[in-house]
Design goal:
four-stranded mixed β-sheet
Length: 184
């Protein structure tokens, strides 16, 4: 499950909780947590999505995608600004994720820096039994959300300590950069 907390370490859980508190304050409460992605009615028949997923697993079919989209929970979602926030733990930076990212359609606004995420996949190269599934979920969210005009703001585990006293300043900077189209 995308951003599943049952696999999360205590550190990850603390970071996610801190980010959620900051987002609640930043958006004056106008934010939904753990929103199921399927409720936004993404287009899983998206040709761009199919092309990327074929690079990961060419045996995926529409029924698989229907099942997967129902498994994706968004950490935080602000409808007014069409911003979706996701926390990516280091275990999400895998070769499967790299393969997907390298095949994303170019010149799109995903809400995060593709090159940075690809480089993190190279550097961290985590290896678990859920690598393919996590790559599929992240890809579905990124590509379908972008098609709907929603930016997926991906926050990496090593980006910042969100429990720090100056975390709100960091969040302000992240969102300001996103609004300017500066994802890297």
């Amino acid at each position: 499950m995308e951003n599943s907390t049952f696999l999360a370490s205590d550190y990850e859980k603390n970071q996610i909780d801190a980010i959620k508190k900051l987002l609640r304050v930043y958006f004056s409460g106008d934010i939904e947590f753990s929103k199921n992605f399927s409720s936004l009615k993404p287009n899983i028949d998206n040709e761009n999505l199919k092309n990327v997923l074929d690079k990961l697993d060419d045996k995926l079919n529409r029924n698989d995608l229907i099942r997967y989209v129902n498994d994706i929970n968004i950490m935080a979602y602000n409808e007014e600004n069409k911003l979706c926030f996701m926390y990516d733990a280091n275990r999400k930076f895998t070769q499967e994720r790299k393969t997907a990212l390298e095949n994303y359609p170019p010149n799109r606004n995903y809400g995060f820096c593709l090159d940075k995420w690809i480089n993190k996949c190279d550097c961290i190269n985590h290896d678990t039994s859920s690598d393919l599934q996590n790559a599929i979920y992240s890809t579905m969210l990124d590509i379908c959300a972008e098609e709907m005009g929603i930016l997926t703001v991906r926050i990496s585990e090593d980006d910042y300590d969100w429990t720090d006293d100056h975390a709100m300043e960091q969040l302000n900077e992240v969102i300001s950069n996103i609004r300017k189209g500066d994802f890297c």
